Amino acid sequence: MEDFEKIYNLYMKDVYKYILALSRNPDIAEEITQETFFKALKKIDNFKGECKISVWLCQIAKNTYYSYCAKEKRRSEHAADIPSPNTEDDFISSDTAFELHKRLHNLPEPYKEVFSLRVFGELSFAKIAELFGKTENWARVTYYRAKIKLEDKQDGT
Question: How much is the pTM?
Answer without folding.
Answer: 0.51
